Amino acid sequence: MADYTVSDLENIANKLRLHVVEMTYAARSGHPGGSLSAADMIAALYFKFMKHDPSNPSWDERDRFVLSKGHVAPVLYAALAEAGYFPVEDLLTLRKMGSKLQGHPVRGKVPGVEMSTGSLGQGLSMACGIALAGKMDGKDYKTICMLGDGELQEGQNWEAAMFARQAGLTNLIAIVDRNRLQITGDTEGAVGLEPLPEKWKSFGWNVIIIDGHNMRQILEALDKAAAAKARPTVIIMKTVKGKGVSFMENNAGFHGKACNDEEQAKAVEELKAVIQ
Amino acid sequence: MTEKLAQRNYYGKALAELAKEDPKVVVMDADLAGSTKTSDFQKVCPERFVEVGIAESNMIGIAAGLAASGKTVFASTFGVFATGRCWEQIRLAVAYPKLNVKIVATHCGISVGEDGASHQALEDIAIMRALPNMVVVAPADAYEAFAATKALAKYNGPAYMRMGRADFPTILEPDMEFQIGKASVLREGTDVTIVGCGQMVSFCMDAAETLQAEGISAEVINMSTIKPLDTETLIASVSKTGCCVTAEEHSIIGGLGSAVAEALCDSTCVPLERVGTKDTFGESGKPADLMVKYGLTADDIVAAAKKSVSRK
Prior knowledge:
heterodimer; A: alpha/beta; B: alpha/beta
């Protein structure tokens, strides 16, 4: 990976956002809201933090990323394409019949996708298995798992959280995209997650809380998590669902809906205005 | 008198051997290692044994992650929890990406006995068979459980194996060969084909003896792989006998009987009678009493065979 600066990474994140709105618009469906909230972190992971080789997706020493909130596949696919795993042109085949870019990520279909996800609550368990294999084999790769906040209502996450602590998975980093919105609205109005940091702490994890749209904070948090010696680390990143497109921001309506023609023109215009 | 042995003891023996033979093998359990006998592996290879606590869904996710990292994973608990509790996890994390995870369950069937319906897996074959990419195996006795465990370790892909709790009569040879997807004709006959899996195979053999005394010649097939079903062996047999009976310690809905019915209606329709539990839950009781009450004895197979013959 080239040595990107903070502003380069911010720019890449916005490029990923543009891909997300274009992909979901072309597909006439998909999940732009949570893709946009995760974009800064995804850019930081794939263009700065993670050890990986797009020309050799199964490189043994690579860091592994598991997208537990599989519905934000568009932002993952955009990052993989921009990183060079497959041609950027393929992105517009998202959700179309015969495309490798399925509505939710599929292991074995897309170079760079580690695990099949999409049914919420399972990714952290899978990441525990990958991290455990790394420990067994004496490898020093990191396993990173991105979770939605609403997804934490699934009990399996907490089974995995208990296990990770028990198994001493210091090579595991969980990232919670805390955009506070799920399909039905505010997470706290559905089944509340707060006090969320205390929950993770009580499960034996290091907890780092950051602004998920501040690239410096993101990079610092990842470095701190990578240096953890005693416990697994969770980064709770406070984000804005739909970040970067004014009318999508904090709008649960764009959880699982693409733009119409008029909205699309505006979204593209807004994003192009900030991309260098 | 045939010797009676518990399949799970031989599963544990096979795992303990695999600990030495194959460094890729990892064994997992959800707080039941002493019962499933994965503890035999744990004793000799604690570094590749993973205790997940009472959390079967998490176990399957971890198994998938381990398999994606090159491990051959055996994940065990009781049949109800190994399949029903985490079916959707198996579907997404294991079956869909064809990961190398073997879900091996003990305590399947009504012969679990006193624990009652909550612990008696009678639907596990049905729900596992429905999953694409999933191999489903139900060995007839302890020796076959041993051989199947070894064969599954060599097979790269998702598989489910079900075993019982109790000691089952041994009917096969201790050094038998097991091949995934290959049924074996244990007794040749001309009037009716009896297809069994699990401990019911031994009752099929008993039933064939009784039928012989009454002038009915029964062919007995051990269909220890239910998926993929060995249709070649099945069809060759029913083409000769002209009628069929299935016997399983499982619901007649979705299990071996259904698999055989599907195969027959795809090629050679002959009368078929299915011995198994009848759309019902089990209950607490002595295993032998439950087998009688729920229609899972050699006598039930005899009656079904006569009915099948009469329908020709």
